[in-house]
Amino acid sequence: MTIGFGFIGASDIAKNKMLAAIRNTPNCEVVSVYSSNLERGRAYAAETFIPHAASSLEDLLSNPAVNAVYISTTNELHYPQTLAAAQAGKHVLCEKPLAMSLTEAQAMQAACQTASVVFATNHHLRNAQAHHKMRELIAAGAIGKPIAARVFHAVYLREALQGWRLDKPEAGAGVVLDIVVHDVDTLRFVLQADPTEVVSLSQQFGMSAGMIEDGSMAVFRFDNGVIAQVHTAFTVPYAGNGFEVHGTEGSLIAKNVMHPAAQPEVLLRTARGDHLLELTANEVYNIGVERFVAAIQGQGTPAASGEDGIWSLAGALACLESARTGQKVAINL
Ligand code: NDP
């Protein structure tokens, strides 16, 4: 069976990552794109060779060739658009953050469950081979009992993306909803543990407008006792990125694993010395689409489920609340 995708949102990520990921997946095609501006939608469709530009969300959702939607609009629209897609019986692959509140994200999951459609979150980083290997090594006891983790994920927001992320709080602007969600998800995946509380400070270093943060440092506690430090920013051009987990018997020290384009490196350091893991860069977005499509076909679960997206949102919202109130904030689902 061919899976026809409808794009909800004529976005940068859809054009630059997800279009190829879907086209690289057997028996999948993007059949229509919906933009709130039909003229823009038509131009986008022509540029990307998508055969149809929908004139409205209803137009896209009533198209029988659309079996699944990929939602990559600005963050406040994910909620109503997921509800509409589920009601129309379409499977949903939704961008992060799933929504602006936990109540909305939980309603999205419930709507998909009621409609018996697959609901997945596009957390691509957990598909990286580096994170899989780290997860396996930790589970196998290679670093003993994990004590602490550090995530370095400060970037310089490229100019093309310096729009709503910096000045539209109503669209879910800010580095925390944009990047901390990925970090919480990757930590949960690698540690196989859930966050329980967070303390954080945020920063406005001149890139974002008003009260919107363009930098954040947070410390999360996980239910296996690990504390994890997370640095994210839109303003830092040369930091590089990394992910470390330190345990009683060893450390995993990874570089270039928080951006799919970089050449990843993971070092296992124990009493026996340093061991550099053999890694190949893998197509993390392709894997997300493949797992989503397999789940639609009744084979397995999405790489990141709706539940995973709810957890990452819970972590990010708690991080924002901690920065706002100056208090430690509990993370409960
Ligand atoms: P974009 O800014 O490219 O697109 C978001 C919306 O803005 C589009 O749906 C579109 O509205 C509108 N838009 C885009 N370009 C223009 C333009 N030139 N003129 C007018 N309107 C425009 O967002 P991103 O692709 O950066 O992000 C979209 C979503 O994907 C977000 O939720 C984000 O968090 C997520 N994301 C996820 C990533 C991942 O790796 N998982 C990476 C990057 C983003 P319309 O459709 O109505 O035309």
Indicate the topology.
Layout: E1 3-8, H1 12-23, E2 28-34, H2 38-48, E3 53-54, H3 57-61, E4 68-71, H4 78-87, E5 91-94, H5 102-114, E6 119-121, H6 129-139, E7 146-154, H7 164-167, H8 175-191, E8 195-203, E9 215-222, E10 227-233, E11 242-247, E12 250-255, E13 265-270, E14 273-276, H9 284-296, H10 306-325, E15 329-330
Parallel strand pairs: 1-2, 1-4, 2-3, 4-5, 5-6, 7-10
Antiparallel strand pairs: 7-11, 8-9, 8-15, 9-10, 11-12, 12-13, 13-14
The structure holds NADPH dihydro-nicotinamide-adenine-dinucleotide phosphate.
Q: What pattern of helices and strands is seen along the backbone?
A: EHEHEHEHEHEHEHHEEEEEEEHHE
Which quaternary structure do these chains form?
single chain
Q: What is the C-alpha radius of gyration, as a whole number of Å?
A: 20 Å
Beta-strand fraction estimate: 15-25%
Helical coverage, percent range:
25-40%
What best-fitting shape do the alpha-carbon axes yield?
A: globular
Largest sheet: 9 strands, mixed
Number of helices, counting only DSSP H or I runs of 4 residues or more: 10
Total beta strand runs: 15
Estimated structural class: alpha/beta
Show unreliable segments: none
Bound molecules: NADPH dihydro-nicotinamide-adenine-dinucleotide phosphate
First-residue to last-residue Cα separation: 37 Å
Mean pLDDT: 97
